[in-house]
Amino acid sequence: MWSPAGKVNDIFYYLGFFARTLRGVGYFIRHSKASFRILVMQILFTFVYALGISTLLALAIGGAVNFIGMPFLTMLSQEQLIYMILITIITRELGPLLTAFIVIARSATAIATEIAGMVISHEVEAYISVGADPIEHLAVPRFLGVTISLVLLNIYFSVFGFAGSYIVAYFFNSMSAEHYFSSLLQQLKLIDIALSVVKSIFFGAIISICAVIQGFAVERASTEVPVAGLKAVSQSFAFCIVVNVILSVLYYLALV
Length: 256
Description:
- This protein has helices at residues 4-31, 36-46, 51-75, 81-120, 123-129, 134-173, 177-187, 190-216, 224-255.
- The protein is mostly helical.
- The chain has one domain.
- Helix 1 packs across helix 8, helix 3 crosses helix 6 and helix 4 runs antiparallel to helix 6.
């Protein structure tokens, strides 16, 4: 049964688990050479294998913004606003959130079900029996891998989103690359890049922590494994959307 007190306790539990994971990052960097392969494989799966769908989405969205927005702005003699619109949609708002959704769909389920399977098969107990901390050896590399991957994927998305917009501008308006990118860079501010990166870091932390917690939460039944994956996805979506709104509101309040 849903209760506000229970949800508050859950949030504090998640924050405590996040703090414990952060504390384990230092130990992982210094000592966990054996788990370094998990970090590499996580980046490979979350970042490299997601480049195809990210490229397609970025090119499509960048091209659509220019294709739809430029004729309207031309009628108003405000063509220069297209660069601010592109930065707002691709870099600040839609880019970080869309890349987070891609990672949630691919990695949140995978991490939750993988760790849940390890719990069911008593692999986590084996770690504990030999004195290895499951947080440091299982949670931390996935936390780092997802967060690093999401930052890189977000940057990649922005670059190809701008490229998609330029392709449309080139074919329909014969705009030179020098004029397009110089105008774009004049409008792109450091705070826009910083907000995009901060969102990616938050989203990466949220997705990895939700997935790991749900994986560890299973008990003994194999039927709990897919449920853990579904819970990881739903919680990641909800938390990422809430955090995105909060960060965007703080950004616009700071500009006032």
